[in-house]
Amino acid sequence: MTAQSAEQLGFQGTGVSIFPITQATAATFTDLFIGVTFLCFICAGSKRVVCPVNGEFVGEAGDLLIFPSGSIVTLENRPVSATNYRATGIYFDHELIDEVFADPPRASGSPGVQIVRQAASADYDVVEVTRRALHDDTLPLSVKRHRLLEPLVWLRHHGVHLPRRGEDQPWNKVRRLIETDISQPWRAENVARHFAMSEASFRRWLAKSGPGFSQILLNTRLEKGLGMLQSTPISSIALECGFKTPSHFSEAFRKRFGLKPRSIRTAEF
Known about the structure:
- It is a single chain.
- By secondary structure, the protein is an alpha+beta fold.
- Helix content is 36%, strand content 22%.
- The chain is built from eleven helices and nine strands.
- It has helices spanning 6-9, 94-100, 126-135, 141-147, 150-157, 170-179, 188-194, 199-207, 213-228, 234-240, 246-257; strands at 16-23, 27-34, 37-44, 46-51, 55-60, 64-67, 71-78, 85-92, 114-116.
- Helix 10 crosses helix 11.
- The longest helix has 16 residues, at 213-228.
- The protein is globular and about 55 Å long.
- The chain starts with 5 loop residues before the first helix and ends in a 12-residue tail after the last helix.
- 32% of the residues are buried.
């Protein structure tokens, strides 16, 4: 789940991305893959989370949700009355997470999605501290990255645990390859060659960890498109995500998520 906003694109090299999230219509997004550690601060509305580790809970305005890398979750963003659901999202790369959370053994597994209630009223504002560090152009990149560790240290101090990067599942390795050029017309035989396998061996390799190649490809493209809806015209999203036409993207999006792409921006009654 990503959103290529102008703000996010300005911070290449820091290992951190920050961006606004808005949604006009309540919708449930099932089995979303979180590739890198994701923080979500809810500004308006609420977010229902279904996590395989911690079960189901609801985050309200003012709460900060922490999604470990590698999570597969179901999310429902809920606008309130005539106000859109609004949140601020922050991604932290693996290197920053490993630097702060290096102590816990890798075998401890994922702690699941965690929540800091009413983070906005706490003595420390994770979002604002992150934003200030990213926007301070007087800082050398190395110093800026060091300051961006501070919000993670604060989270750890308040009991948040994030796992170190573990061994990728086969489907995750394939997904990361697709994400290098998501518009490319990927074929199973080409991806198999990348991993030095025959197509038959490649499909057996994938079958051990879950979804097949076609499903991985479609999910990767749709979830990329979901994030891009924050800032990019639907016609451009379709082509950038490897769909032949905007209508093809819209129909696949509706089948996966249960609503049309434009409903993310405009409420349907």
